[in-house]
Design goal:
The protein is of the alpha/beta class and 315 residues long. The chain is built from 13 helices and eight strands. β1, α5 and β2 form a beta-alpha-beta unit. This is Deoxyribose-phosphate aldolase.
């Protein structure tokens, strides 16, 4: 990449330098990106590999509830499902994390204590991100203090689209500092970024500012996760590791509901970023209903038939 020749330590030294770096990144061929993503989506996998892929997809899920009507009881039920997705099958692995609003972090932290399932929380005035920075930093720090070990923040898309890249960089860096030891997932809200070039720039901006994971969407805006957008993010983290030596994860969130779709994303991860990213530490699905279909498909592989509609709990 020609743009990566600039010393990365100096990239964020000024608005001018950061803009020059981001706009010096190679452009994304829209037609080419969409054709490649569509081609990878046609790949088929054998039955033994499918069983492995279904279990991996389960392990990659951030089981999410982000509704105004969320209650402690609903969160506790979700945490129970996260730990034992299929109570009838002890071989079914737990999910990666449960993601809730900050006010419900103490409930999730208590319910998941000692389970190995992470507690994730949205912060920084999710989903719009339009509030003063001090309040967003306080919200982040309080969520971590309450037990969240992963924070999903949203970038200020208005600032990004206006070209105020240094402002966005500094806000991400400040939230990263407020996270302490917690991992930071940076939500780009790709449906509002208009172009693939903007998606690539936003991903690199987040990576440079210290993101542990770059995430497609809040799930509140359409389009949310798509295969081409996720491919652009995977290319960014792959290229950034080549340049910086630091590996960053990707989270695809919003609209991924079927096991077939999840497997398409896993094929994309393997082909674009590489097998190193086929791990819950480096790739996640943000989902509320995907898990149910994965459980149905696991059951079908094991028995040869689908169970009735009451086989899985409704979220």
């Amino acid at each position: 990449m020609t743009a990566t020749a600039a010393p990365l330590a100096e990239v964020a030294g000024s608005q001018t330098a950061l803009r020059a770096f981001l706009h010096g990144l190679p452009g994304v061929d829209q037609v080419g990106a969409e054709q490649r993503a569509a081609g990878l989506a046609t790949r088929s996998i054998k039955t033994t590999a499918k069983a492995w892929a279904l279990d991996l997809a389960v392990r990659m899920i951030d089981l999410t509830t982000l509704e105004g009507a969320d209650t402690p009881g609903k969160v506790r039920a979700l945490c129970a499902k996260a730990q034992r997705p299929d109570p009838t099958d002890p071989t079914c692995p737990p999910v990666a994390a449960v993601c809730v609003y900050p006010a419900l972090v103490p409930v999730a932290a208590d319910a998941l204590a000692g389970s190995g399932v992470h507690v994730a929380s949205v912060a920084t005035a999710f989903p719009a991100g339009q509030s003063p920075l001090p309040g967003r930093l306080t919200e982040t720090a309080e969520a971590v203090a309450a037990g969240a070990d992963e924070i999903d923040m949203v970038i200020n898309r208005g600032a990004f689209l206006a070209g105020r890249y240094l402002e966005v960089y500094e806000e991400i860096a400040a939230v990263k500092q407020a996270c302490g030891e917690a991992h930071l997932k940076v939500i780009l809200e790709t449906g509002e970024l208009v172009t693939y070039d903007n998606v690539r720039r936003a991903a690199w901006l987040a990576i440079l500012a210290g993101a542990d994971v770059v995430k497609t969407s809040t799930g509140k805006v359409q389009p949310a996760a798509t295969l081409p957008v996720t491919m652009v993010l995977l290319e960014a983290v792959r290229d950034a590791r080549d340049v910086t030596g630091r590996q960053v994860g990707v989270k695809a969130a919003g609209g991924i509901r079927s096991a077939k779709d999840a497997i398409r994303y896993l094929v994309l991860v393997n082909e674009v970023a590489g097998a190193e990213w086929l791990d819950p530490a480096w790739f996640r699905f943000g989902a509320s209903t995907l898990l149910n279909d994965l459980l149905m498909q696991r059951q079908r592989l094991a028995t040869g038939h689908y169970s009735g509609p009451d086989y899985v709990t409704l979220d």
